[in-house]
Amino acid sequence: MDHLKDEAWINTITETLTRNQARNYINHVMIPELLELPERRALANKILLTCRQYLQVRVNNKPQPPADWSRQVPDAAGDKKQWQLLKAFLESPVEQIFDYRKNQSERNGMKYTIGRVVIDLKTETIKKGSPHTLRIIKTQAEYKRKMKDWNEDLELLKKIEITDYIFSEHRQ
Fold first, then answer.
1. pLDDT for 34-46, tens place per residue?
2. CB burial class (10 A; 0-12, 13-18, 19+) of residue 97?
3. What b-and-e string marks burial along 100-109, b requiring 16 or more CB atoms within 10 Å of the CB?
4. CA–CA separation, 108 and 131 (whole Å)
5. Domain boundaries, the chain
6. Under a CB-based contact definition with an 8 Å cutoff, are residues 69 and 94 in contact?
7. Cα(70)–Cα(87) distance, integer angstroms
8. Contact at 8 Å (CB) between 127 and 116?
9. With contact defined as beta carbons under 8 Å apart, do 143 and 66 qualify?
10. What average pLDDT does the structure give for the chain?
């Protein structure tokens, strides 16, 4: 009967500790601590198994690059005018660069608008001619960030598999 109580307790604690499936928590707090344990008991093994399953799901869903250069127009309440101006550019599957040649206050306003949202755009000022030009460039930053995370998840999964193998060898 004690074995069943122990198992129920382990399951409850594991569920409690792994309920928060925030990637940073799992990857940078939970897994490193578990991998550093000199020996693993049932609870640590159960938690690590749950983390491993979480990582496996992430690794199985490799990010795909965007199909084309179209980007979704943000739904930003106070900046409707600027986003309306960029709408055709953002929705275009082929256009990658938009030159916004306006006075400095309008360029600053556009740059501020773009900086307030998470979107795959970067800006640079072309200081040739007058007024200067704010060049707006579509990027693949989101895809690259997702691939960086995916590669990190893959490496962490490999680490878990290696330590699982080492622990299983020591138990035999």
1. 888 777 677 888 8
2. exposed
3. beeeeeebeb
4. 12
5. 2-64+144-171, 77-139
6. yes
7. 10
8. no
9. yes
10. 88
